[in-house]
From TrEMBL:
GO terms for biological process: carbohydrate metabolic process. This is Mannose-1-phosphate guanyltransferase. Residues 383-513, 533-631, 636-745 form the Alpha-D-phosphohexomutase alpha/beta/alpha domain. It comes from Pseudocalidococcus azoricus BACA0444. Belongs to the phosphohexose mutase family. InterPro entries: A-D-PHexomutase_a/b/a-I, A-D-PHexomutase_a/b/a-I/II/III, A-D-PHexomutase_a/b/a-II, A-D-PHexomutase_a/b/a-III, A-D-PHexomutase_C_sf, Hexapep_transf_CS, LbH_EIF2B3/5, Mannose-1P_guanyltransferase. Residues 250-350 form the EIF2B subunit epsilon/gamma LbH domain. Its main location: cytoplasm. PROSITE patterns: HEXAPEP_TRANSFERASES. Residues 3-234 form the Nucleotidyl transferase domain.
Length: 840
């Protein structure tokens, strides 16, 4: 039987280690990852191996040759022109695969029982079997659900946090029958997880999952590369060691000399022909490659040092990675998480800071203090984008230096010479970051249209009217004190989707953003009459006659956070009497308690002047809270239901688009008006895209995000929402207080419950497995339907915090309270289990 070992990966997330080395050739315990895979295949009598190669193929061929030295017979298949993807490269060698065969990813480390997996495949007469395993955090992998017979019923590649319905994932090891390749076109890039397996599921082809026991790790980042080294030293995975075990858990290669005064703390590995001099301390977790010299009185703690490197006297290496033939001179310090590329020279008494990456062949002068990577800057967190955009503490996480690199990464995904719009709120810190973003964009050859301080809805509208390729808006985070939020949107004004966000993150983490010559640096312009253009579009979609006849009186409270110059001027044109409160912008926004106090004052003013309604605007013009004619606040689920009722009464038969967790009162209202309800995942991008794509959409969003009227633009817009609200009140000829009294009563609760990241996937799988499939809705999170579906429980993982959100929706208060208690208790108990108890 043959096995296909996919060894063409370039390993961009392992740079600078993979700048001159294919990912499968990265050493693990001084042997390439691919060699450990060959050893595993050989142990299970899989001795005919086909390597598929693309990136630096000669490195692989020169090392493994024909395979006889490794006990296997190797054939090579090189993708010469362009990569064909995981499935495309296997289709490319279909003529060599005439019977059942294995496919193994060349960047995974495992000791799975492949013989047992093959027996499972044959027992079930499967055309394709995926080898699966359970992991603590399934976000970066393909999540899989199988039935009792092991047949795969659902598969989703790299889900968003809300889509994690299991902790069982695809390991990249497959057992396939040759007929499966008939479903793939020849010479075209195709992926097993994204293309072939979903097609097989759709075609109801027998697709099975074998849940393997044992160790598995996808070496997808520098952090996991370090971790798998330590796991191997601690014998958590069965790999063949290099050298002899000189002392318990201390392996030493041949011809290595260790000074008697050297301190060795297990577990650790020393390669062949090494020299460890006097008073050296090698702490547990240290791996030395072949031909390494460690100078006297040096201290290495969990350091990984590749072959041929020389570490000078009294140097300190702490949890770092040192590439091939690196010279670290005496008294140098390399701190935790730093990665030094091959052939680099670190000068005497120099210090390399935490997390710094240095590309191959660089020279660090003596005494230098390097706190940023040598290319464009220091590495940051794994994921830049959160629920809405890129968020962080103002001038701590979101600094001018970070903003320049972020903008350059974004601009590197665009064509040179294109234009991007940039805007911000009125605060000084936002201006500082916006200016840094402008510099980053221009440095990559992108032209900038700067709107300066303006409400976010106007900025989204301007993206369309100015025909730019995208936009960036900087503002204080609407929900988190002291944080800034940088939002990116496309040419329609819609927040960038996950695929585009990943492109930006890849460019940022690879740190290879392009730079243009000084003659091609982008230009900056300041468009005029943007507010006037917005006002024209604003009036186009309003029933101005109804507004003028109604003569509505409204009180607007800007809560010291949004410019008050735009909306009153627009509403005055339509005959409305507008009273504005708190329009001065403060650098520090009001907290929750202060905002509630302002709402009470707003209610008093509404009653005092007998206004039709009051509105408090927030989130830089995106969100609103209402006060009715009696001075009572309307917010949350009630506000969402009120808006849906007003819009559907004006547009009967229309479609309202809401997030999955909003109460079922919306369905009751829609039936009353002959309308429809569409539910989407609970993130802003999905809502915006659905409002644009869904024919007949008349309203989108909710009180917590803001409301979308797709006619004007695809973003949340409190200003247009207020005008439409006044229009619909004019048409209904009813006071707001009377309309709210007639809204359907639904009991809806929400709790945010602590749940460690490590337990989220297991919790979702537990909920799926302990409920009937007919009662489940997996649009986002796990929704359990009760009775006729009007009553439900939703468990939704938080995208950026170790939390899950529990929503309970019911027609009866007692049932809702009971379910809220039962499921919160269930989640609490599950989240406090030990890791091995939740399947980790």
């Amino acid at each position: 039987m043959r096995a296909v070992l996919m060894a063409g990966g370039s390993g961009t997330r392992l740079r600078p280690l993979t700048c001159e080395l294919p990912k499968p050739m990265v050493p693990l315990l001084n042997r390439p990852i691919a060699e450990h895979i060959l050893n595993l295949l050989r142990r299970h009598q899989l001795t005919e191996v086909i390597f598929t190669l693309h990136y630096l193929p000669d490195v692989v061929r020169e090392y493994f040759g024909d395979g006889h030295e490794f006990g296997v017979d190797i054939t090579y298949a090189v993708e010469e022109d362009y990569p064909l993807g995981t499935a495309g490269c296997v289709k490319n060698i279909a003529s060599l695969l005439t019977e059942t065969f294995f496919v193994v990813s060349g960047d995974s480390v495992t000791d799975f029982d492949l013989t047992a997996a093959l027996a499972f495949h044959r027992q079930h007469q499967a055309l394709a079997t995926l080898v699966l395993t359970a992991v603590p955090n399934p976000k970066e992998f393909g999540v899989v659900i199988t039935d009792e017979q092991g047949r795969i019923s659902r598969f989703l590649e790299k889900p968003s946090p809300g889509e994690i319905f299991s902790d069982t994932v695809n390991t990249g090891i497959y057992i396939l029958e040759p007929e499966v390749l008939d479903y793939l076109p020849s010479g075209i890039e195709r992926d097993f997880s994204k293309d072939l397996f979903p097609l097989l599921l759709q075609s109801q082809i027998p697709l099975y999952g074998y849940v393997a026991q044992g160790y598995w790790c996808d070496v997808g980042s520098l952090e996991t590369y370090q971790q798998v080294q330590y796991d191997a030293l601690q014998e958590r995975v069965q790999l063949e060691p290099v050298g002899r075990e000189l002392y318990p858990q201390i392996w030493v290669g041949h011809n290595s000399i260790i000074h008697p005064r050297a301190i060795l703390r297990p577990p650790l590995l020393i390669g062949h022909n090494c020299r460890v001099q006097g008073d050296v301390c090698l702490e547990s977790g240290t791996v030395l490659g072949d031909n390494v010299i460690i100078g006297s009185r040096s201290h290495l703690n969990q350091a990984i040092v590749w072959g041929g490197s020389v570490i000078g006297e009294e140097s300190v290496l702490d949890s770092c990675i040192i590439g091939r033939r690196v010279r670290v001179d005496r008294h140098a310090i390399v701190q935790e998480g730093a990665v030094i590329g091959s052939r680099t020279r670190i000068g005497e008494e120099s210090a390399i800071g935490r997390g710094v990456r240095i590309w191959p062949g660089k020279q660090i002068e003596a005494g230098a203090r390097v706190n940023q990577s040598l290319i464009w800057g220091s590495t940051g967190q794994r994921n830049l984008f959160g629920y809405q955009g890129v968020a962080g503490l103002a001038n701590v996480d979101i600094t001018p230096e970070f903003a320049v690199r972020l903008a350059a990464a974004y601009a590197s995904t665009l064509e040179p010479g294109t234009s991007v719009l940039i805007s911000r709120d009125q605060r000084s810190v936002s201006r500082m970051i916006a200016n840094a973003l402008i510099a980053g964009l221009m440095s990559v050859g992108i032209n900038v249209l700067c709107l300066e301080a303006i409400a976010l809805p106007i900025s989204r509208f301007a993206v369309q009217s100015l025909s730019v390729c995208g936009g960036i808006h900087v503002r204080l985070h609407p929900d988190r004190d002291e944080q800034l939020l940088v939002e990116f949107f496309d040419h329609k004004g819609i927040n960038l989707n996950q695929a585009k966000q990943r492109q930006i993150e890849t460019a940022y983490f690879r740190e290879d953003m392009r730079r243009v010559s000084f003659t091609d640096v982008g230009r900056i312009t300041y468009p005029s009459q943007i507010v006037e253009t917005y006002a024209q579009g604003f009036g186009k979609w309003l029933n101005t006659q109804a507004l003028q006849q109604h003569e509505c009186k409204i009180v607007l409270d800007y809560a010291y956070a949004v410019s008050g110059a735009v909306l009153p001027e627009l509403l005055n044109k339509f005959g409305s009497d507008v009273v504005v409160l708190n329009a001065t912008v403060h650098q520090t926004p009001p907290n929750t308690e202060e905002r509630q106090g302002l709402l009470r004052e707003l209610g008093q003013v509404v009653q005092a002047i007998q206004a039709n309604l009051g509105v408090q605007v927030s989130a830089n013009g995106e969100r609103l809270t209402l006060v009715d004619d009696r001075g009572q606040t309307i917010a949350g689920e009630e506000l969402t239901a009120l808006m849906a009722d007003l819009v559907l009464s004006a547009y009967p038969g229309g479609t309202v688009i809401i997030p999955v967790h909003i109460s079922s009162a919306i369905e009751v209202i829609a039936r009353k008006h002959g309308g429809n309800v569409m539910r989407t995942r609970a993130n802003p991008t999905d809502l915006m895209e659905a409002c644009q794509k869904q024919a007949g959409a008349v309203l989108g969003g909710s009180a917590e995000t803001g409301f979308i009227f797709p006619q004007l633009h695809p973003g949340y817009d409190a200003m247009f929402s207020i005008a439409k609200l006044m229009e619909m009140l004019a048409l209904r000829q009813q006071p707001l207080s009377e309309i709210r009294q007639n809204l359907p009563q639904v009991f809806h609760t929400h709790q945010a419950l602590r749940c460690p990241w490590i337990a989220k996937g297991s919790l979702m799988r537990h909920l799926v497995e302990t409920h009937s499939p007919t009662t489940l809705n997996l649009v986002d999170g796990v929704k359990i339907l009760h009775r006729d579906g009007s009553d439900w429980v939703l468990v939704l993982p938080d995208a950026s915090e170790p939390l899950v959100h529990l929503f309970v929706n019911g027609r009866e208060q007692a049932w809702t309270e009971q379910m809220n208690h039962d499921y919160s208790q269930r989640i609490h108990e599950f989240a406090h289990l030990e890791p091995n108890e939740v399947g980790v």
